[in-house]
Write a structure and sequence with these properties.
Layout lengths: L11 H20 L8 H24 L3 H5 L7 H19 L15 H21 L6 H29 L4 H15 L8 H26 L7 H19 L21 H28 L3
Length: 299
């Protein structure tokens, strides 16, 4: 609760309940990687154990004044805590569980594109609560976070659709949705540290990089990640953490008493290195913790 005591207006109970939403959504993201390949009981057991082994320590390191926070790693709303941990762990589980019958020879599209679009819309709006709410107060920082979040999603959707149009001859609704989610996941760690126009750039970069991860990397590694959790959330979270080290601006103060954080564009190249170190440490811990959770739950 250290962030509550730094002059923020949010009460401790409200802060705890808000943080519980992050703790719930993170293992839920991983579930999308192994659709049609796991029993419900195992999913519950793995999710509970994984949360204790992976999510709780990483959250403490980054958001609880742990050693990564002391090193200077910045993650406004969960790029490394939520998306990187979920994405890396999803890749490990997908590789361990193997492929669905017929994959990749059979095209496995969502059975209801309409429900998929509706779900993406709910995610898009809900992301405003995650990123804007992480300011822990209704101020200018929350507004800037919401603005950059929305613009990143728009840019990601447009760029993904454009690449798909060039690559496959026409864009698709699923591609537009994937691009939007890629933009949302990538802007998450940087949203409270950057200006809205930075969100456009970050979202556009996310559209390119996450498309490459979902199409090229997935094809070469031949893993079956049903909902592209690694390609969209994992790669997006890692990219966003690095982008925070590039675009962070001192113009946005962390608290009324503390100055903002500068990134590479403002001459602070050290911040990018700190962000990269955080990615390496958390990635290694995710692989280690996920393998332990898989072993203890007898995958």
């Amino acid at each position: 609760l250290d962030s509550v005591r730094e002059g923020q207006t949010t009460g401790e109970l409200a802060f705890a309940l808000f943080q519980m939403t992050f703790a719930i959504i993170t293992p839920a993201l991983i579930v999308g990687a192994w659709v049609e390949r796991a029993r419900f009981g195992w999913v519950v057991a793995f999710s509970a154990l994984w949360s204790l082994l992976v999510y709780v320590p990483v959250t403490r390191w980054v958001w609880g004044s742990g050693f990564l926070a002391e090193q200077g790693v910045i993650d406004f709303a969960g790029g490394i805590v939520v998306h990187t941990t979920a994405g890396i762990s999803a890749l490990v589980v997908a590789l361990m569980l193997g492929k669905r019958i017929g994959f990749p020879r059979t095209l496995m599209l969502p059975h209801s594109p309409a429900l998929t679009v509706a779900g993406a819309g709910l995610l898009w709006v809900g992301w405003f609560g995650f990123n804007g709410g992480s300011a822990l107060g209704a101020g200018s920082r929350a507004v800037f976070a919401i603005g950059s979040t929305h613009l990143a999603a728009c840019a990601g959707a447009v760029v993904w659709a454009a690449i798909e149009w060039r690559h496959r001859g026409k864009p698709s609704v699923l591609g537009i949705i994937s691009g939007a989610i890629a933009g949302l996941g990538t802007i998450t760690p940087a949203s409270g540290f950057v200006l809205p126009w930075h969100g456009v750039v970050i979202g556009a970069i996310a559209g390119v990089v996450c498309y490459w991860a979902c199409i090229v990397v997935k094809r070469r590694l031949k893993y079956d990640d049903s909902l592209d959790v690694f390609g969209v959330h994992g790669v997006g979270g890692i990219l966003g953490l690095l982008m925070a080290g590039v675009f962070a601006t001192s113009w946005l103060s962390v608290t009324p008493e503390a100055p903002g954080i500068s990134g590479l564009l403002e001459g602070n190249s050290e911040q990018l290195g700190i962000q990269a170190l955080g990615v390496l440490i958390v990635t290694g811990w995710c692989v280690f913790g996920t393998l332990i959770a898989l072993g203890l739950t007898h995958v």
